[in-house]
Amino acid sequence: MASATAVAHETQAGRMADGEVQPSPAAATRRIEFRRRGNAIPLRGVAGVVAALALLATAGSMLWMYFHRLGKNPAGFFCDEAQIGIRTWQLLHGTLPAPSPRFPAFYEHIDYTIGAFSLYFGAPFIALFGPTEAAVRVSATVAMVIGLAALVLLTVRLGLRNGWIGVLVFGLSPIGIHMARFNMAHPHGFMLSALGFLLYAVARQQRSAGWALGAGAILGMAVYANVAWYIATPVTIGCLGLGELVSNGVVLARWRTFALSVAGTLLIWIPLFHRMLTDESFFNRFKEKQGIGAAPLLSRARLDAVLDAYPKYFSLDYLFRTGESGGILRHSVPGAGLFPWLILPLVLLGIVAILWARRGPAKVIGIAAVAMLVLYPAPDILTTNPLAPPYTFAVFSMFLCVPVLCAFGVSLLSRWIGGSATSSWRQAVVPVALSALLLAGSWTFYRGPYADYPNV
């Protein structure tokens, strides 16, 4: 009996150290519980079959829109796509321009330096299918699918009921479809960030040093995909730190997972730091975006310009009606915004759910997603001309927050409408209704503005 009591106290102490103490029954009625993974897919019986059919229809439609006529739309290569295809072919045959090593961490992309992750990830596809548009692009499409699958697994780990819908709402958004169908290495960064979040949640729940180091390393690896993650990844890690602070306070014992993840990131960044210090062309891309006469980054003039330009990134026209305008037309699809209107209420519900949630891994990830939403302009606004329109290819590096917030929103809606009876027909209302709305909107976009996209 004494031994059992000691074990119980030790287990409770471990939970207290990790910030996951079980509340009293009264407190449990006032807070949302996200930790039980079994609640993520709670349907049984006929209601479960109906919801499963909704999942298959939605996921199947997404895969069709991602892979169908991949080499034909967009029509022809983007300049950057062609460069990635050429460099991948050269990597396969050992003919990268001197003085590049045989297996580089970076390569010369047009007139600036970029990480070589997309070359390695895309090499098997080009080796199998040759240097064609479809072979170059399928690398990005597969990366996007893996990233979305990682986020679905994340919602299961966190116990977000029907969270897969929130993830697929993003995957079937105009910007989700658009970015998945060409290769400028953005989906590769998205995939690594999503995998990093998933591993961080696992490390947080299992209190594992190995998983924590791995999570940090995978998150940090995103900087080798696209230059936008040079800013996005440090901001994302900072947002995770804010989530830990809100959830667990300043008790040092509760920061072990975060500290180990930061260590993993710094280790994977050693080649990046070396390149920054030794390559004079490293910052060419940022200088190119700022233009001539831009105020220094650390100056009062730049701060004023950033504050003046910040609201344009939250414009309803930009996000939901017209997308990027006044810049390069191929950066978004004319006739459509970046997101469907369905995302707006789901994100707002998600914020409510996160603020209402108990502390623990879900709270940490949720607060990080809210912070990322607030800071999502950072990769563009810190390095661009303040008069330029929002640069979608840069801010996409922070869009991981959108499916996460939507998943929290769907989970809260499912609990309000479905209740707790897992066999009730009410449980199927949310997945079926949201899937129907999502499919109607995505097919309208795919057969409308996106069908006209080759004419851009």
Structure description:
The protein is an all-alpha fold. It has one domain (63-455). It is 63% helix and 2% strand. It is built from 22 helices and two strands. The chain has helices at residues 2-17, 25-28, 45-67, 79-93, 117-129, 133-158, 163-171, 174-180, 186-206, 209-221, 229-248, 256-268, 270-278, 284-290, 300-309, 316-321, 343-356, 361-375, 378-381, 392-395, 401-418, 426-447, and strands at 106-109, 112-115. Strands 1-2 form a two-stranded antiparallel ribbon. β1 and β2 form a beta hairpin. The chain is globular and about 65 Å long. The chain starts with a helix and ends in a 9-residue tail after the last helix.
Summarize this entry quickly.
The chain has 22 helices and two strands. With 456 residues, the chain is mainly α. The chain has one domain.
What is the CA-atom radius of gyration, in angstroms?
22 Å
> What's the helical proportion of residues?
55-70%
Q: Which overall shape is indicated by the principal axes computed on the Cα atoms?
A: globular
User: Pairing-aware structural class of the strands and helices?
Assistant: mainly alpha
Strands of the widest sheet, in order across it, are: 1-2
The number of helices is 22
Strand content of the residues, in percent? Answer: under 5%
Topology summary:
Layout: H1 2-17, H2 25-28, H3 45-67, H4 79-93, E1 106-109, E2 112-115, H5 117-129, H6 133-158, H7 163-171, H8 174-180, H9 186-206, H10 209-221, H11 229-248, H12 256-268, H13 270-278, H14 284-290, H15 300-309, H16 316-321, H17 343-356, H18 361-375, H19 378-381, H20 392-395, H21 401-418, H22 426-447
Antiparallel strand pairs: 1-2
Helix pairs in contact: 3-7, 3-22, 4-5, 5-6, 6-7, 6-9, 7-21, 9-10, 10-12, 11-18, 17-18, 17-21, 18-21, 21-22
